[in-house]
Amino acid sequence: MEIPYTVHKRADTGLYNAKLGIWLFLASEVMLFGGLFSAYVLLRVGAGEGTWPHGWLDVRLGTINTILLALSAITTLLAWAALKVKEFGKFKFYHACTMLLALSFLGIKSYEYYDKFHHYEIKLNNGTIADGHFVEQSKDFDLVKKTGTFTIHGHIVERHAELMDMRSDEAKKAVHEEHVIAAADIKHMENYSPRHNTFTAIYFTMSGLHALHILGGTLVIFYLWGPGSKMWKTDPERFTNRIEVSGLFWHFVDLVWVFLFPVLYLT
Questions:
Q1: Distance between CA atoms of 94 and 225, rounded to whole angstroms?
Q2: For the chain, which domains are there?
Q3: Contact predicate 154/133, CB 8 Å
Q4: Gap between the Cα atoms of 132 and 95, Å rounded
Q5: Among 77, 96, 122, 146, whose CB has the most other CB atoms within 10 angstroms?
C-alpha cells in the first residue's frame, strides 16, 4: 500500500504531508521557546537593581558556538541541494560536516556546564566572599578532611554586589590567584548550578532545552546519513524530502540560538 502525499503535494495545502507536519510541529516549538523567552524578560525586568548578573558567561565560547551553528545551517542546506542535483557523495560529506559541527557545539556547551558546576561562591564567617574554582588537590575529599582546608583559584570580595557585574572595571582589575580557605571559616558554599539564583536557573533551562534539540536533531541527521540513506536507492525523491524536513528543524534550532546568544551572553 502506497502512502499518499509523501512526494507529491496536496492540492489543499500545496505541501507534501511531511513538510506540512514539520511546519505544524515548529509552530508548537515557537510557542514553547516563546514562553521561555517571555519568562526571561519578566524575570529580568522584575529583578531588583544590582541583583541580575552580567558577564557570567564566556562571550568567546558563545561566539564560537554561534559560528558553528551558522556553518551547520549552511552544510545542511548544501546536503539537501546535493541530493536535488543527484550528487549523493556530496550529500554524505555535507551531512557529516553538519554532525561534526553539532557535536563541537555540544562539546563546548558541556564544557560551559562543567565550569559552572565547579565554580563556587563561598561565604565566609568574616563577611567576605571567596569566588572561584577548586584546584585539583581540593577535589580529593580525603585530603580535604585530613588538612581541613580548601584551595580555590579565584578572588575574595567584600560585597556580594562585586560578583554581579563581571564586566565592570573593578571586576576586570581583580587578581585571581590561589586562596587557602579553612573549612571552619566557611559559612555557606554553593556552586553556580541552576539552584544558585534566578539567572542560572533560566540559563540552564533555556540553553539546556536548546541543547537537547541539537542532540535530537543530530541523532536524526545521523540516521539519515547512515542506515536511513538506503532509501536513496529505492525512493530518492522521498528521501530528498526527508532531508528537507530535517533541515527545516535544524534551521529552527539554529534560529533559536541566534536569539539565545545575545539574550544570555551579551545583556
A1: 10
A2: 17-44+67-116+196-266 (1.20.120.80), 119-191 (2.30.30)
A3: yes
A4: 40
A5: 122
